[in-house]
Write a structure and sequence with these properties.
Helices cover 40% and strands 10% of the residues. With 197 residues, the protein is an alpha+beta fold. It has a 3-stranded antiparallel sheet with strand order 2-1-3.
Length: 197
């Protein structure tokens, strides 16, 4: 990108996906200058304009910015014009460190988060790099593993046949549920086996 009508482009940097937000009141914003700041970093004019307008209307927006010299310098530039910025580009997570921090084996990590064990092994040994979706997912796991596990968990309800078989409601709960590895084993027809196990 060369000079475009007086816009001095940022000469080097890395691509980033950013989301803009309004940080003050509308009368304190300088929307044209914010669009120019995005243009300086290689964003197409129309996309930059739409992202700034969406931020001013407090709507969601995401924009691919080709040349960001540094996220801090870019954020400072936008801040002067009344806009905040978040970088949403997923980073490559060190899967081995994450897994070890969580105290999980490769198999446990794979099962807990619904990943292929071969993929986890390949990422850890550097044979492959996660694709964009896997980078995003492992970033979310790194930030809040409990929330990810909770979102993936499907509660198992106490089977109606156990209630019909006369198993007391006081034994309800995941820790007693046959599907979760607890509670009595049931024969076909819903009757407990001898000894309950």
């Amino acid at each position: 990108m060369g000079r475009i009508r007086g816009i001095d482009p940022v000469r080097s940097g890395s691509p980033a996906i950013v989301s803009l937000r309004l940080i003050g009141s509308l009368d304190q914003t300088k929307s044209v200058e914010a669009v120019i700041a995005l243009r300086r970093r290689g964003a197409p004019t129309l996309k930059a304009k739409r992202a700034v307008e969406a931020a001013m209307e407090r709507k969601a927006n995401v924009l691919d910015v080709p040349t960001v010299e540094s996220p801090h310098a870019f954020a400072e530039d936008l801040w002067r014009f009344g806009f905040g910025m978040s970088v949403v580009t997923p980073v490559t997570v060190d899967v081995r460190k994450l897994r070890e921090r969580l105290g999980l084996t490769q198999e446990q990590f794979s099962l807990r988060f619904g990943l292929e064990q071969d993929a986890v092994r390949n990422w850890e040994y550097g044979r492959r790099e996660p694709d964009a979706a896997a980078k995003s997912y492992t970033t979310v796991i790194e930030r809040d593993p409990e929330a990810v596990q909770e979102a993936l968990a499907v509660p198992v309800e106490w089977p109606a046949r156990a209630t019909q078989a006369g198993i007391p409601h006081s034994r309800l709960g995941e820790e007693r549920c046959p599907q979760a590895g607890g509670g009595p084993r049931l024969r076909p027809g819903g009757r407990p086996t001898r000894g309950g196990r």
